[in-house]
Sequence to fold (120 residues):
Amino acid sequence: LLVESGGGSVQAGGSLRLSCAASGRTFSIYAVGWFRQAPGKEREFVAGINISKTTYYADSVKGRFTISRDNAKNTVYLQMNSLEREDMAVYYCAARRWGVARTTDEYDYWGQGTQVTVSS
Fold:
């Protein structure tokens, strides 16, 4: 079970930190990805972290977002800085047994999503 939290409303240029908490599994053996979906658009890859803590980012968020994980807390974080209107979406975390993937169909477990709203 994956549960996202930390979404909310923020002005452009502001920051939010999303959390993805896992229960019932050994989280450290899973790669985790963050995805987002805006109204009328497909779900897209945002960032990912594998079991060795190597990180991956979409070009659109490089330098602004940081993904990290705390295996002792079974939690993955997405620190989002310098938020833009284009970042507004529902954000989902997902987990899979092997390395980070950038497509949704390669993930086995998904959270319910958390809304991020950015106002200008």
Q: What stands out?
A: The first strand starts at residue 2 and ends at 5. The radius of gyration is 13 Å.
